[in-house]
Predict the 3D structure of the following.
Amino acid sequence: SCTNMLWKNSKTSQVFDNLCSLLSELPVGLAHPRAVYTYGYEDYLKIQDGIARSEKRRRIRMLEEKRIIKLKKEGDRIVIQLTHDGQIEKIKRKLLHNSNQLPSNQVCLVSFDVPEDIREVRNMFRGLLKSLQFRFVQKSVWEGDRDVVKDLIQLVQKLRIGRWCYIYIATKC
């Protein structure tokens, strides 16, 4: 479901970010100096690599269970695809990582009146606006100073709430 936003600093979140940016490996650190002494540096690295790959596979399965990614076998390869919810998650992360500010005399206004029968989507969208430090202006109207219009429009389209949502750049008087 689109309200299952991954925790920003979780391991699963890191794996998701890596998939989105097409990175192939998780970082491996020397967390156990005694193991290096016991097994030798080369064997320790092999053990750590195996642990990291196992952890990565576990996190990928978790993303698949949350229906954020879909695994598809093509010949002898496994292809990872973002699902609809995964695409929404990717846009939300892009929005949250965007720190570009609008000029000081401009604001981004978001007005929406999403129906009660899709309350889950409305609540997620409102929560995202709050996370982006948008301010509640009046009933269903929010104001923010970040330059996120293009990504918000993309999210609104993915959420299929365009007929109830309007996004503007306005000049302050």
